[in-house]
Write a structure and sequence with these properties.
Two copies of one chain form a homodimer. By secondary structure, chain A is of the alpha/beta class. Chain A has two domains: 85 residues, Rossmann fold (3-Layer(aba) Sandwich), CATH 3.40.50; 124 residues, NAD(P)-binding Rossmann-like Domain (Rossmann fold, 3-Layer(aba) Sandwich), CATH 3.40.50. In chain A, the strands form three sheets. Chain A has a five-stranded parallel sheet with strand order 5-4-6-7-10. In chain A, strand 1, helix 2 and strand 2 form a beta-alpha-beta unit. In chain A, helix 2 packs across helix 10 and helix 6 crosses helix 10. Chains A and B meet through helix 5, helix 7 and strand 5 of A and helix 5, helix 7 and strand 5 of B.
Chain lengths: 287, 287
């Protein structure tokens, strides 16, 4: 059973996110002085409640930092070409700094086609291939927000990455692969594990830095990590007992030197980084 | 000392490259029937003898497969903006299918700026961020030729990648990082090691598939690999005794199940894949 928790080991994602948002607010104020008004347009197709909630959270963050937020709500019956037209109109609209298409999209629309249509300079999510490629070749600009948030946490907690054994569990386009690229750019030795990995523990047990985002409650147990590991838990698993990460937090914390909680760890950082990206877009396009 | 070598373990890169070139020749002939004449323009800045040799090798390969090859030789004193103008003219030239800028460029020119200026559809080398990003998100199109050549060798030798432990040594933009992405796209568990890795052997000894390209003669010794490993050696190290790979071939072969020699392994594949890319460009742009 888990003993008393040493709270000094908990990475306070909320506090760092507030710090990032305070920086963003300052930059927004300075931009407004120059008549530049950062604006995020969120594109929501259909009425998925989870997507609606995510969009609301992003709008609230915009409000907190002084970024204009505009809703573009479209019916689930919209065709791909109609949606492409909408994206092109937003690309052309000089008052729009950033465009965020909330995923998932209905099955009759190719998410990749839509992502590719967004002007890479307005791509606050960092999912456009051009931005992904710049990430891979260590010319990081707009990059996916969740891994970028983890990098910022590493910096805030003064964790030197170079030469460390980093293990990323999950190889999605949104978290695992960009996270691996960012850690490589900072000269960690990086291993990427996933559903096809034969002996997960043989990797996780060697990790100095462990990032996991696969959506399996408490996949990472205490016996799978080494003493002193720094753990970033991207998992969000809801059940009748509450919200759980991919890490068995209550037990793993005894071995970890630092660990993110769920909720309150990586999540708040993702949105704060998104805000910083909207501002970056506004600075780049001067609008 | 090394015993007699079992030649059945040697991956014959030359033979597979010839097979690829034969496929390319066939496609070129079919394209010519449709009045499409694939053409590669190589841009060489300055008079570096190694670069001149590489360009010559590519022109010879073009000749073998029926691709038109054109030299664009520019003085080392050319400015970045003059070179950019040249690239833009080649982008606009409908008779040009592919543009290859031979690296390295003189120090006063940003290679990245030049790469970014090449039309991604004419990017036979696969170095443009847009193409690199599509690689990262598993939408592989034009990708770097050396790792792509290794993937083709894996296919030809019927090595299933999914679930295997793959170790990539070197994290360059040209080989290591794109190789890691391609192996991940095929569901290998992938570790990337490099100059900052603290205990290289602890990684290489676990590899089912080992790719190395760092330019250190015989870095990988027999005691660093496990029995049955499949080894791809991208290293080319010249000294007074000849050309050597990054792998101590004569000894490692006794433990490996398959291994590429240097020369005659990965090298010929790189050029054959380049040829296939020129044809792919010609098919895409219809010229």
């Amino acid at each position: 059973m888990s003993d008393a928790i040493d709270s000094s080991k908990i990475i306070d994602g909320k506090a760092v996110a507030q710090k990032v948002e305070a920086e963003v607010s300052k930059t927004v104020a300075a931009l407004k002085e120059k008549n530049i008004f950062p604006k995020l347009v969120t594109v929501l197709v259909g009425e998925d409640p989870a997507s609606q909630m995510y969009v609301r959270m992003k709008h609230k963050a915009c409000e907190r930092v002084g970024i204009l937020a505009e809703d573009c709500i479209l019916p689930a019956t919209i065709t791909e070409s109609e949606l492409l037209n909408k994206i092109q109109a937003l690309n052309a609209d000089k008052t729009v700094s950033s465009i965020l298409v909330q995923l998932p999209l209905p099955k009759h629309i190719s998410a990749q086609t839509i992502m590719n249509a967004i002007d890479p300079k307005k791509d606050a999510d960092g999912f456009h291939p051009f931005n992904m490629g710049n990430l891979l070749i260590n010319e990081e600009g707009l990059v996916p927000c969740t891994p970028k948030g983890i990098i910022r946490l590493l910096e805030e907690y003064k964790i030197d990455v170079q030469g460390k054994n980093a293990v990323v569990v999950g190889h999605s386009n949104v978290v695992g692969k960009p996270m691996a690229a960012m850690l490589l750019n900072r000269n960690a030795t990086v291993s990427v594990c996933h559903i096809f990995t034969k002996d997960l523990k043989s990797y996780t047990i060697e990790a100095d830095i462990l990032v996991i985002g696969v959506g399996v409650k408490h996949l990472i147990k205490e016996d799978m990590v080494k003493p002193g590991v720094v753990v970033f838990d991207v998992g969000i698993n809801q059940d009748s007992t509450g919200t759980h990460g991919d890490v068995d937090f209550a037990n793993v914390i005894h071995k970890a030197s630092l660990i993110t909680p769920v909720p309150g760890g990586v999540g708040p950082m993702t949105i704060a980084i998104l805000m910083s990206h909207v501002v970056k877009c506004a600075e780049t396009i001067g609008q």
